[in-house]
Design goal:
Radius of gyration: 16 Å
Strand order of the largest sheet: 6-5-4-3-8-1-15
Distance between the termini: 29 Å
Low-confidence stretches: none
Strand content: 35-45%
Order of helices and strands: EHEHEEEEEEEEHEHEEEEHH
Helix content: 10-25%
CATH topology: 60s Ribosomal Protein L30, Chain: A
CATH class: Alpha Beta
């Protein structure tokens, strides 16, 4: 199993919002994942070979293969472990529960959680115009969406702590409703009686952008605090 990534999360934090990789190209590397779109135009979630764009209106749209991404993470999802969670947990408790299921914190994991969710809170970022502001400024005006007693899927990854600067250390999850009409970047949840599938991934492959924006970006600064604000 290989985790494929286009660009780095620090480049995204620096405002490198335009990439060269199309979604048609991205699909060669996986059928499951998350990411965004050029101009930071919404949140991406990929499930079973289909990719969806959740725009700032909270609505999910099927992705056209010609669309491009400045940051995305995908894999071919093949679960190594499946569990049924029958107790009520919030997002923080869910992460602790998942951590206890994992054999090690030093490799990558793809995660898919399906069921009826008591509560889901998501966000989606509106498309940005040049000159692009830093991501930490963009999220100050992010639209928030709330769902109650909704059936759907949470999908994403858990990355090791040593990946900071490259990807998001810890959990990075997106959500989409069962009817594939709404979703976003997961901020909070309350769930019970869900099915959890975990794909252990020990190989990592990354392709970096070749454009001037990426070449000129200052990627040497420590951005952990910025990332915390952006992800939460």
């Amino acid at each position: 199993d290989v985790l494929f990534q286009a660009s780095t999360v620090n480049a995204l934090l620096e405002g490198v919002y335009d990439g060269e990789m199309t979604y048609e190209q991205l699909k060669r590397y996986g059928d499951f994942g998350l990411g965004t779109f050029n101009g930071l135009d919404g949140e991406m979630i990929g499930l079973e070979g289909k990719f969806y764009q959740i725009k700032a209106d909270g609505i999910a749209y099927l992705v056209d293969g010609s669309m491009r991404t400045p940051f995305a993470v995908v894999t071919y999802f093949e679960p190594d472990k499946t569990v049924l969670l029958d107790k009520s947990v919030d997002y923080k408790e869910l992460q602790q529960y998942l951590d206890n299921l994992l054999p090690t914190k030093n490799i990558f994991y793809a995660l898919k959680i399906e069921g009826i969710f008591k509560y889901i809170k998501t966000r989606s970022i509106p498309k940005q115009n040049k000159p692009y502001p830093p991501l930490v400024e963009v999220v100050k005006n992010q639209p928030i969406f709330e769902f109650h007693n909704v059936k759907g899927t949470i999908a994403g990854f858990r990355c090791p702590i040593y990946i900071k600067g490259i990807n998001v250390p810890g959990y990075h999850l997106h959500f989409i409703t069962e009817d594939k009409k709404a979703g976003g970047h997961l901020l909070e949840c309350q769930l019970q009686n869900v099915r959890i599938e975990i794909d252990y991934t020990s190989e990592f492959y990354m392709v970096l952008p070749e454009g001037a924006e990426f070449y000129k970006a200052d990627l040497e600064k420590e951005k952990h605090q910025e990332l915390e604000k952006v992800e939460k």
